[in-house]
Amino acid sequence: MDRTALVLAGGASSRFGQDKGILELSGKPLIKHVVDAVSPLVDETIVVTSSKERAAKYAGLVDANVNFAVDICESNSPLIGALTGFSLAKGQYSLVLPFDMPFVSRETISLLFELCTGKAAVIPRWPNGNVEPLHAVYHTKMAFEAAKAAVAEGKLHMRAMIEKLHSVRYVSTLVIQQLDPELHTFFNINTLVDLKMATAMVKMRKHK
Asked: pTM of the entire structure?
């Protein structure tokens, strides 16, 4: 098995006020938008959640072949979700994505996987230097060891894991823009305003 997708769905949706994963965008739950986008590109898909109850709720919204995992410890840190996923992933390389990015570009994901061959990670980077560690592909075993070491040091952010990885490749968003001109692949939904924007974006896409 070569490729795994880890969809991180452990966030509290505090800014939204309710569980974002079950909210519908264009008649489909948000969690399903992401899972449906990545599943054809990988050998397995694992949704990592914060509780068994949440996992059971999401399981009823996605295809039966999607696997679920619960965070190894209680935390709002995406690094804990990533560590949990890396520990279970069977693929040599693992895509990490949050569950609130409904416009994930399959072309972009395919590129990240291709560029990750022989590397510890491939991470998109904006011209201002900001990176997208939650929209990236990692060598599973290397990332697992790096994440475990970061957590052991009490560092619960993705940057701490990345700093422990060697041979990280950064790919400019200017390159990704050739595949996804509007860079909608990085659009995530945190607020009701974002949801309204996403709804408008769906309508625009249908009229193109």
From this structure: 0.92
